[in-house]
Structure formats: C-alpha cells, structure tokens
Write a structure and sequence with these properties.
Helices cover about 40% and strands about 15% of the residues. By secondary structure, it is α/β, with parallel strands linked by helices. Helix 4 links the parallel strand 3 and strand 4. Helix 1 runs antiparallel to helix 7. The two termini are about 30 Å apart. The protein binds pyridoxal-5'-phosphate. Pyridoxal-5'-phosphate binds next to helix 3.
Length: about 375
C-alpha cells in the first residue's frame, strides 16, 4: 500500500502508540483517583499538557484537551458567540473546514451575522476584504492556518494583527498545521487555536483547544471539574499521553521532515505536470503545506481516479470529505474559482515523512497508466 492521504489521518507515531497501549492496558487509572495508578495517569495528562503547550509557544494552563479538531472548533466559535449579546458579527473564510463553516451556519440560525471572506486563485484570504468586513459588532474572526484541501498557508500573523487592532478575538483552525509547520501563538497573536492529534501521529478522537489566558470562555461540556471545569469528562488518558509524545516527536523532527516532504511533494508535482498532459496544480505553489499536492486531471472524474488508484494500492482523496460515500463538489476549489467540471476532476495527495521517493515514482507511473487508459476510451 502507498498511503498518500495523510491529510485525512496519519499512521500513529511508534512511541506514541507504545504510550497509548501502556495506558490502555497496564495503567487504566482515572487521573482523579487518589491511589498510585490514578496519580501516574494524572502525571501523564499534565506532562502531555506541557508538551503540547511547548509545541505552540503557549503555557500549559492555556491548553484544554478535547475530542479533536471538530470539537475544538465548535467550542471556540459557539462559546465566543455566547459571550456577546451586542457584538453579533463573525468573520471567517469561504475555505474553512466544515467544522468551522457548519458551526457558523448554526450561529447564523441563532441570529449571528457571518461574513465568509473570499480567497484569491491561490487560496489566500483577501486581507483587504477582511479590513472592510470588520465593524464594531465583530466579536470573532476565524481563519484557518493551513487549508486541508489545497495546503495554502495563510499569513496568520498579518491577519491576526489586523484583528487585534480592531478589538475582536482571533481563532485559527490549525489542525493541518500543528506538528507539520512552525506555529507559535504568541508570535502569531492567536487567541484560540484548534488542533487534532490524529493529524500529527496521535490517536483519533483526541485534540486540544488553546485559549489565551484571560479569555474566559464558557465550558463546552458541563460535569466534573476536569480541564479547569470547562470540559468535563474522564480524561482520555491513553490518547492524551500519546498526543503529548507525538507532538514532541513531530516538533523535534519538524525541520528535517519538512525538507524531506517538500522534496517528495515537488517531485510529485513536477513529474505530474511535466509527464501527464491536461493537469494543473491547485493552490499556491510556494506557501503550501510541505506534504500537500492537489491536481486537476482534465476529463477524469475523481471518483473514477480514486477507484483506479485504490486498485493499485494507492490511497488518495477527493480533497473534501465525502458525505455518505458520495463526493460533494469541493467548496474550497469552488472558492478559488474552479468550474464544477474541473472540481470533479481534482484529486488530493497528502504525503508524510514516512513516504519514500519510490512511493512517489510508483504513483506517477500509476497515474500515467490510468490517464492513458481512461483517455484512450
Ligand atoms: C481533520 C480536520 C478537522 C477535524 O478534526 P477531527 O479531529 O477529525 O474532528 C478540522 N479542521 C481541519 C482543517 C481538518 O483537517
């Protein structure tokens, strides 16, 4: 198998998996219990909190463990909205993940005004449109750090600066960025940040929300006193311990992994564009996640392409998540101006440091064969 769908989820980091199994099997204690296995579990949760905080330049008390990226996005947006009676305007972008877009749609039904900022053909948020959209009612701006479909990395520092000056709060969905590219909440002036462990070698169903000190968001899960009383429920100790380990390893190896992934990425892009006619790259060529490749193959529907690739043991995706098995036309590709016919012909490959140059070359050969075959019909 050649796994080129790391944007959907990643294989677990080896050391993280060992930590996880230990807390599933050998130590199944509840961190709130008063005996030694409970205390060890509690220490593991707090150690992970420090590891996570260090990775994004936060302090441990600003990290809240959640069930993942979707929950973190839901919490940040709904709790922020509930803080304000009068400031009922939210700004986000047309290319956010459904966890942000659909939360905004929900808030619109609650009477909030939401502006969905347009993006350029490369996928960059229109900064002038942001300036124009901000008004005295704006309580929150949410702009993703890096896009999950086309990999475009936003100028977060510049965007967050504009937001800070306006007096609104700034949230970023950094699920695709954390563990892959440098993220620093201080340097980038981020007030809230969502991340998900299974996108950086941790376990599915775990993640965190960073909430800047002094920003008193309402709780998301009411119950026991876990997570400073803001997110109740017995800690997912195995996954949290694994997340701490995975983020630590990802941070330690980040620069090496980035250089390597970029080399694989650029080879894949260059070879496809050079050797397969009727192909185009979607998203920015330069300010792009090290592992992201998104290509339109003229005249070949992505559903057919994915099926053919799967038959050759290659895992890729149509970019946007499919709902109930059917591939919906991507709202991201639509936002960068692709017509529906080209959206349907686009495929995303997301690479990791585990892939080899042989994987890439074999994928190119497979793509050439599939394109030749389908186009000769
Ligand atoms: C995967 C993803 C999410 C959702 O994270 P989960 O942990 O799977 O809920 C949110 N935003 C982006 C950008 C993602 O890629």
């Amino acid at each position: 198998m050649i796994y080129l769908d790391n944007g959907a989820t990643t294989e677990m980091d080896e050391k993280a998996l060992v930590r996880m199994v230990y807390f599933l099997k050998s130590n199944y204690g509840n961190p709130l219990s008063q005996y030694s296995i409970g205390e060890e579990a509690s220490r593991a949760v707090e150690a992970a909190r420090i590891q996570v905080a260090q990775a994004i330049g936060a302090s441990p008390s600003e990290i809240y463990f959640t069930s993942g990226g979707s929950e973190s996005d839901n919490w940040a947006l709904t709790a922020m909205a509930n803080m304000y009676q009068k400031k009922r305007h939210i700004i986000t972008t047309a290319i956010e993940h459904p966890a942000v877009i659909n939360t905004c749609k929900y808030l619109e039904k609650q009477g909030f005004r939401v502006t969905y900022l347009p993006v350029s053909g490369d996928g960059f948020v229109d900064v002038e449109a942001l300036r124009a959209a901000l008004d005295e009612e704006t309580c929150l701006v949410s702009v993703m750090t890096a896009n999950n479909e086309i990999g475009t990395i936003q100028p977060i520092e510049e965007i967050a600066d504009i937001v800070r000056t306006s007096g609104a709060w700034f949230h970023t969905d950094a699920v695709q960025a954390v563990g892959h590219i440098p993220v620093d909440v201080e340097k980038m002036h981020i007030d809230m940040l969502s991340a998900s462990a299974h996108k950086f070698g941790g376990a599915k169903g775990s993640g965190f929300l960073y909430i800047r000190k002094g920003l008193d968001l309402e709780p998301f899960v009411h119950g026991g006193g876990q997570e400073h009383g803001k997110r109740a429920g017995t800690h997912n100790v195995p996954a949290i311990a694994a997340m701490g380990q995975a983020i630590k390893d990802a941070e330690k190896d980040m620069s090496v992994r980035m250089v390597y992934e970029r080399k694989l990425r650029d080879t894949l892009i260059d070879r496809i564009l050079d050797e397969i006619p009727g192909t185009r790259l979607n998203g920015s060529r330069d300010d792009r996640l090290p592992g992201n490749v998104n290509i339109t193959f003229d005249g070949i529907e992505n559903e057919t392409m994915l099926f053919r690739l799967d038959a050759k043991g290659i895992c890729a995706s149509a970019g946007s998540a499919c709902s109930a098995g059917a591939i919906e036309p991507s709202h991201v590709l639509r936002a960068i101006g692709l017509p529906d016919s080209e959206i349907r012909d686009s495929v995303r490959f997301t690479l990791s440091y585990r892939n080899t140059m042989e994987d890439i070359n074999n994928t190119v050969e497979a793509l050439k064969e599939i394109c030749r075959d389908l186009r000769s019909r």
